[in-house]
Each structure stands twice: as structure tokens, then as C-alpha cells.
Design goal:
It holds the Pfam family TauE. The protein is about 75% helix and about 0% strand. The chain has a two-stranded antiparallel sheet with strand order 1-2. The two termini are about 30 Å apart.
Length: about 260
């Protein structure tokens, strides 16, 4: 029961983050699932693979709930979503295959570096300057491939990359966040499919579907669907820059804890 409640609490928090900051919650879901799975004594060789696959599968549900809330406020650039989705799907699926070939130790190290990068970006309030317009279909597909590939390696909805890219291309921050929540769906869809397929023949615990652990997926998704619209609502009324700094400190703590587990 304690484990189940921890999944629900994690989902509730991730849902708020998805709507509030447009980050899909994966930056929190992956490290916390790693800690929970370790406590459950799941196979150590596949703990990170299970955390990444389960995170992306849960983001499928979170992103739908969040994007609907942003769409109702007219904050989703659907033209961008259509142009970038092909690259997103290919890059994310390919990235999940690459991740399945890598060790948990390597994936942990990569994830820690990514957490520190995102935390530094938030703490220093590094924002790209709007310097250009949105590129054409080919360039958007290429960008989507890169965002999808990296997202699949760290189990996130891509918001930490999608939002800065859109802001750089003269998209207003509220619309960049809303569009990012929509882009998170094809990332999550392709990533979850990739981890499911690539983990199908692995020696995994009961209730696993490839590298997706179904009990965690159920608890996280059920709670995140409820709380994502709340986060989207709060995004239009709370001091986002201040909240990002608190979130960055949380990322530093979790990243350090994961790094120490490597030694």
C-alpha cells in the first residue's frame, strides 16, 4: 500500500508540473521511480530502463490532460505541432532503442548530467532571445528528431528543450508552454512504444509490459490526469520564474542523490 500511495503522490505532483511548467513531469518521475524501484528490489540491471519507459507511458496521459487545458485557453500552436511531430516520432523511437542497449549505470550518469544542466538553466534564468521565425518543415523535423532522441534517453516530455526552442523562434512563453504540452504526446507515444518493444524479451518482474511497469503507470497516470489541468490553470496566475528556481533546487537534490548511488 505504501508503494502504491507513493506512485499516486508522484503522479499528482508530476501532473501539476506538466501543466505549470510544460515539462511533462518526467524530470521528477524518473529519479523518484528509480528510488522506489530500488526499494522494491526490482532487477538492478533494468531499473533505469523501467523508470524511463514507465515515465514516458505516463506522460501520454498527462500530456493529453494538460494540452486540452492549454488548448481551451488558445495557447497551443497546432501548426508547430504538426510540423515537428514526424521528427519527434522517429527520433524518440530510435532513442528508445539506443537506451535499451545501454547499461543502467550509463543511463543514470547521463540523466544526472541532464538534471544538472536543466537546474543550472533554471537557476540562472537562462532564456534564449527571440532572434528568428519558425523554420520550415524539414528543419522542424530535424529539430523534432533531436528533441525526441534526447527525451527518450531521459524519459521526459521534451519541454525543457521544446520551450526554449519555441521562445527562440519568437513564440510567446505562455504559448510555448502550451505547445510543448501538445508536443509531449507524440514523444510519450513513440517513447512508450519503443521501450515496450525493446524490453519485450528482457528478464523483467511480474506486471511489466516491456520496459513499462504497469502498477506504477496506473498510479501515476490516474493522479496526473486529475492534477494536470490545475497546473495549466496556475500557469496563468503564479510567478513562474520563482517556481522554476524552487524546482531547480529539487532537481539538484535528486540529481546528487542519483549520482551518489553510482559509487
Amino acid at each position: 500500500m505504501t508503494i502504491w500511495l507513493s506512485y499516486v503522490a508522484l503522479g499528482a505532483f508530476a501532473g501539476v508540473l506538466a501543466g505549470l511548467l510544460g515539462v511533462g513531469g518526467g524530470l521528477v518521475i524518473v529519479p523518484v521511480l528509480t528510488f522506489i524501484f530500488t526499494a522494491q528490489h526490482l532487477p538492478e540491471a533494468h531499473i533505469l530502463h523501467l523508470a524511463l519507459g514507465t515515465s514516458l507511458a505516463s506522460i501520454m496521459f498527462t500530456s493529453v490532460s494538460s494540452l486540452r487545458a492549454h488548448h481551451r485557453r488558445g495557447a497551443v500552436e497546432w501548426t508547430v505541432v504538426r510540423r515537428i511531430s514526424a521528427g519527434i516520432l522517429v527520433g524518440t523511437f530510435a532513442g528508445s532503442w539506443v537506451a535499451s542497449q545501454l547499461s543502467t549505470r550509463f543511463l543514470k550518469g547521463f540523466f544526472v548530467v541532464f538534471l544538472y544542466y536543466v537546474a543550472a538553466q533554471m537557476l540562472l534564468n537562462i532564456k534564449p532571445k527571440a532572434q528568428r521565425q519558425l523554420p520550415g518543415l524539414a528543419a522542424m523535423s530535424g529539430v523534432g528528431g533531436i528533441i525526441g532522441g534526447v527525451s527518450s534517453l531521459v524519459g521526459i516530455g521534451g519541454g525543457t528543450m521544446t520551450v526554449p526552442f519555441l521562445v527562440w523562434c519568437n513564440v510567446a512563453i505562455p504559448r510555448a508552454i502550451g505547445t510543448s504540452s501538445a508536443v509531449g504526446f507524440p514523444i510519450a507515444l513513440a517513447g512508450a512504444a519503443g521501450y515496450l518493444v525493446n524490453g519485450w524479451s528482457a528478464d523483467l518482474p511480474q506486471y511489466s509490459l516491456g520496459f513499462v511497469y504497469l502498477p506504477a503507470l496506473a498510479g501515476i497516470s490516474a493522479a496526473s490526469i486529475i492534477t494536470a489541468p490545475l497546473g495549466a490553470k496556475l500557469a496563468h496566475s503564479l510567478p513562474i520564474d520563482l517556481l522554476k528556481k524552487f524546482f531547480a533546487l529539487l532537481l539538484l537534490v535528486m540529481g546528487t542523490k542519483m549520482m551518489l548511488s553510482l559509487f
